[in-house]
Amino acid sequence: MAKACVLQSTLLPAYSPLHKLRNQNFTISFPPLPVSRCRPGIHCSVSAGETTTRSMEEAPEISWGCEIDSLENATSLQNWLSDSGLPPQKMAIDRVDIGERGLVASQNLRKGEKLLFVPPSLVISADSEWTNPEAGEVMKRYDVPDWPLLATYLISEASLQKSSRWFNYISALPRQPYSLLYWTRTELDMYLEASQIRERAIERITNVVGTFEDLRSRIFSKHPHLFPKEVFNDETFKWSFGILFSRLVRLPSMDGRFALVPWADMLNHNCEVETFLDYDKSSKGVVFTTDRPYQPGEQVFISYGNKSNGELLLSYGFVPREGTNPSDSVELALSLRKNDKCYKEKLDALKKHGLSTPQCFPVRITGWPMELMAYAYLVVSPPDMRNNFEEMAKAASNKTSTKNDLKYPEIEEDALQFILDSCETSISKYSRFLKESGSMDLDITSPKQLNRKAFLKQLAVDLSTSERRILYRAQYILRRRLRDIRSGELKALRLFSGLRNFFKFVIDREECFSHKAEYEGDTLHVSFVVIKSDSQWHFNEDGVDLVIHGPTGEQIHDFREQISAKHDFVVQKKGVYRFCFTNKSPYHETIDFDVQLGHFAYYDQHAKDEHFTPLMEQISKLEEALYNIQFEQHWLEAQTDRQAIVNENMSKRAVHKALFESFALIGASLLQVYLLRRLFERKLGMSRV
Ligand SMILES: C[S@@+](CC[C@H](N)C(=O)[O-])C[C@H]1O[C@@H](n2cnc3c(N)ncnc32)[C@H](O)[C@@H]1O
Fold first, then answer.
1. Can you give the residue ranges of the SET domain (predicted)?
2. Which domains, and CATH codes, for the chain?
């Protein structure tokens, strides 16, 4: 069942539909637009519809565009753009590690520099002139909204090959854009089973198919000479929408117009970059301002917007490396309980505010929106709170200004437990998928298919891992809050118990240590500093390796060639964690190692006192903070030790050098005296003769 999702939350940027429908007959509604691993080329065309299960070999190929990693057409595009008025550039299209083709600095670029300057004449928007003006006229007559209009425009221009002024641009576009539009229903079901992105992809595919059907029945079928079936069909629409989803940008300074900007659309995305494309009124061109310097040969990035990994996969077909996307979020589905005595009343309240059951809410690594909490309050509220249903549903729909004050202390624990249960149900789906993905039958019928399936599976594994990570974090926070609430009164003083282990050791080649974690959800803090080597003439600047393994031998984290490092992680499985150090230098090294486990002890429900609970919460938080400070303090002490030894070695070396130089000077002086004496003695002998 498709689930409605509230994206307009206190945590996510406001949901801004790409276009407002000008004609209500069109039912399409598309979501907003714009360091990962390498991918094998997917040079096949695959059907996405539920009923269309054509194999890749059978699917018709698009006869324009190129393989995404091809540079030949990109070079022609570059030449054509220069001839058409693109000013000289400080970047060039090249093959890159991230994103296959991208723009690479051809000279030093300063931070804060404006780049690109693509003139409006080289931008494709809903107002662009049609090479076939008659077709353009018909589309305008039907008042087609921007997205379907641009999709049709792109196909029309592509089919006219060299007669279109956009020939060079279209030839450099990927023949098959990376996008979930190209995943079959079976692939979506199999690989994205745990993620809500599956629903979003199905919805999007349905919208694209529906839009094409709408255009076909209302316009194309009535003007077959302008829109022949061989050119305007579901396959070509899938291509053009794939291009729009992965390349269309919104230009705020051009009245929020949506545009395809040749050249600028060769820039790849980086989650850490904070610069966006926009129209610059002073230079009259599309630009972006660098937020960091680049050296010649370095790939230049922009941001496609603050999108979650799922949204990036949906529109652009890639998933950033785990933990690198600060805008990452996962959609958590919450549902009313079927056996709820007030099910109907609650559902009516939800419907009144445009919500339903199940309903998705975004959860981030930093927390969840108030809307989600409001929905949870509604789900768990007993019949005697029916007067509050309306207020709760309103707050869950983000339509209330007082939502931040929404508090029902009497049902807070139930609401948090309900969110925790939903989180855990979702986590178990991800865990099942990730476990099964290891032995997933890739149904190999050809190497090409194997390549594709392995690639899609990897994307799904990456997405599931990053989404599950956020849920684990939410689970940890929820458990802690519940423990705080349940512990009550003075119990909170003993809530936090830490297990600490810190010591210095000398390592020759390899040393392993283990630490037992008794509870899931606790946080393990690890730090080490390489303090000294056994030779005062050598000081290790290459560092050591540390690999952390979980209870079943899985690798949790690794540091390579580090002098000092710190890492925190949430214990997902209780058991013994192993920390293995490797020293690759020929010297013995002394390492200061600190591992600390923070645990909130679980207490059963005790009498609660509303006045005391917040105080106890604060005390337990302070206790944890104190513990963390001790950890930081030890780390700093270790760093100071290292620095003291570095300084001591340096001064010893300086003294040795000075002594050596003095001895050398004395030696040279004595030699000089000796030689002079010999010379004078000889001269004296000669004069006597
Ligand atoms: C606007 S285009 C950028 C140019 C594109 N690389 C090309 O060669 O045509 C967006 C597409 O680039 C790729 N891309 C962009 N950023 C990426 C990243 N960080 N990692 C992997 N692929 C990326 C994706 O295939 C995406 O659909």
1. 89-305
2. 62-316 (3.90.1410.10), 329-487 (3.90.1420.10), 494-646 (2.60.120.680)
Q: How far is the CA of 508 from the centre of ligand 1 (A)?
A: 45
What is the SS3 assignment for 80-120? Answer: HHHHCCCCCCCEEEEECCCCCEEEEECCCECCCCEEEEECH
Which residues have a Cβ under 8 Å from the Cβ of 335 and sit 6 or more positions away? 357, 358, 359, 379
The answer to whether 105 and 93 have CB atoms below 8 angstroms apart is no
pLDDT value for 512: 82
Q: Where are the beta strands (DSSP E) in 534-660?
A: 544-549, 555-562, 564-570, 575-582, 589-600
- How distant, in Å, are the alpha carbons of 130, 163, 426, 531 from that of 475? 54, 59, 11, 37
| Contact criterion met (CB below 8 Å) for 319 and 458 | no
Q: Are 495 and 622 in contact (CB under 8 A)?
A: no
Strand partners, 367: 364
Query: Separation of 576 CA from ligand 1 center, angstroms?
Result: 41
Phi then psi for residue 285, to 5 deg, are -155, 165
Mapped onto helix, strand or coil, the DSSP state of residue 225 is coil
Cβ atoms within 10 Å, residue 618: 12
The pLDDT tens digits of the residues spanning 121-147 come to 999 999 999 999 999 999 999 999 999
For residue 71, pLDDT over 90 is answered with no
Backbone angles phi, psi at 33, to 5 degrees: -95, -155
Residue nearest to atom 8 of ligand 1 (CA): 101
Residue with tokens 């690109």: 116
Structure tokens at 585: 């230098």
Of 194-198, 205-209, 295-299, 591-595, the poorest mean pLDDT is in 591-595
Q: Say how many Å lie between the CA of residue 451 and the centre of ligand 1.
A: 19
Task: Indicate the top mutation candidate among 42, 98, 318 to test ligand 1's pocket, ranked by most ligand atoms within 8 A of CB.
Answer: 318
Q: Rounded to the nearest 10 degrees, how much is the dihedral formed by the CA atoms of 212, 214, 218, 220? A: 10
